[in-house]
Structures are given as structure tokens and as C-alpha cells.
Specification:
Layout: E1 30-33, E2 39-42, E3 49-54, H1 60-76, E4 81-87, H2 99-107, E5 114-117, H3 122-127, E6 131-132, E7 134-139, E8 144-148, H4 162-172, E9 187-188
């Protein structure tokens, strides 16, 4: 398990990009503009567990898993779980993922938690986000305890985001997450500088 935190994290060989978070790492709080107005700060120590999902407006994988992810947000809200959904896609090349388009979906009631924008993609690269959707779960000590897909099959709604639910149930029970990592599947994040290849599709 790696122990690099915040500003003392190990830097990649090119000395420009910090190594992305891995399961077991402590993550730093961050603040993003929220579609619909205002800002959202993610500070995992304020919640029993925190779910961070990279998603977007147009990806067929993100759309297929969308309702399952929103239902998790609703089902776990009264158990102290916070969810934040992040769109980092390059809006110049993918205008369907612009901040204005995000706000339209929020106004339509499509999201059960805050939907925010990582305009310069810095945090997305720090976290090692690869695809939409890419799901991360943090415990109350800000430790990354799960990363991967919502469940085993985007085409099967009966899966019900089972991987995500199992990780949250373990965290809330005070247990180690039984399956801390699965293979994320989806469309690659649309980078401004495309230096993050998607090996998961």
C-alpha cells in the first residue's frame, strides 16, 4: 500500500504529472463549480463514505449505468454517504458535455447528487480517471477503498450497481472492502491533452 499524501506524493518519471491515486491512498479535498449554481467541496472526513463518479452526458456506458448510480445516491443518503458526479470531458470537442448542457440535465432532475465540472482536468488526472463511468469510494478517513465499475454489466439493469453497493456496505459496517478494485468499463475521458490512454474499453 502506498503512503504518499498530497504535496509529498511521488512524481512520475517525467516530473510533470503526479502518480494517480491507488486503492489505499489518502486523497485531498477539492472544490468544483456545480451545475445549477454554486460550488461543491469534497471533504470525505465529513461523511461516513464518499462516492466520486466520473461521468458525462453522452457516453452510452454512462447513460446505461446512470439510473443505477442515481438510485445508489438516493438509497444511501440517509446512511451518511455523499456522492459527487464529475464531468471532465473536453467541451470544445464534445459540446454535449459543456457546463451549460450539464445544467440543463440538473434542471431536468436527472441527477440525485451534485454534478460538477473539472474544466482544466487537473483533478481528474490526479485521480487517474480513465472512463465514464469510473467509480471511486472513500471512507471517512479520506482513504480510497474502491475503484472500478458500478457492477458487472452495463447492459443488465438487474445488476443494480452491485459492486458499488457492496463496497459501501463494507465501509459502513467498518469492514475492509472485500473487492477493492474491479475493471472500469466505458468511454475514455475526452482529454484536452490526450496523454491518458483508455485501456479499459
Amino acid at each position: 500500500m502506498r503512503q504518499f499524501v498530497g504535496s509529498i506524493r511521488m512524481w512520475a518519471a517525467n516530473e510533470r504529472t503526479p502518480m494517480p491515486y491507488a486503492v489505499g491512498d489518502i486523497v485531498d479535498p477539492f472544490t468544483f463549480p456545480r451545475a445549477g449554481g454554486g460550488e461543491t467541496t469534497v471533504a470525505p472526513s465529513d461523511s461516513a463514505a464518499t462516492v466520486v463518479v466520473w461521468t458525462c452526458n453522452h457516453c452510452p456506458y454512462a447513460l446505461a449505468w446512470h439510473d443505477r448510480i442515481q438510485q445508489v445516491a438516493r438509497d444511501y443518503a440517509d446512511r451518511g454517504v455523499t456522492m459527487i458526479q464529475i464531468n471532465a470531458n473536453n467541451a470544445e470537442t464534445h459540446p454535449h458535455d459543456s457546463f451549460e448542457a450539464m445544467a440543463e440535465r440538473v434542471a431536468a432532475g436527472d441527477f440525485a447528487s451534485d454534478y460538477v465540472r473539472d474544466e482544466d482536468q487537473t483533478i481528474s488526472k490526479q485521480w487517474g480517471a480513465k472512463v465514464t463511468p469510473d467509480v471511486f469510494v472513500l471512507d471517512s478517513s479520506s482513504r480510497l477503498v474502491y475503484r472500478g465499475a458500478p457492477d458487472a454489466d452495463h447492459d443488465d439493469p438487474s445488476q443494480g450497481a452491485a459492486y458499488l453497493r457492496a463496497a459501501l456496505d463494507d465501509v459502513l459496517a467498518g469492514c475492509a472492502v472485500a473487492t477493492p478494485e474491479t475493471k472500469p468499463r466505458g468511454c475514455g475521458v475526452k482529454w484536452i491533452v490526450n496523454d491518458q490512454p483508455n485501456p479499459h474499453v
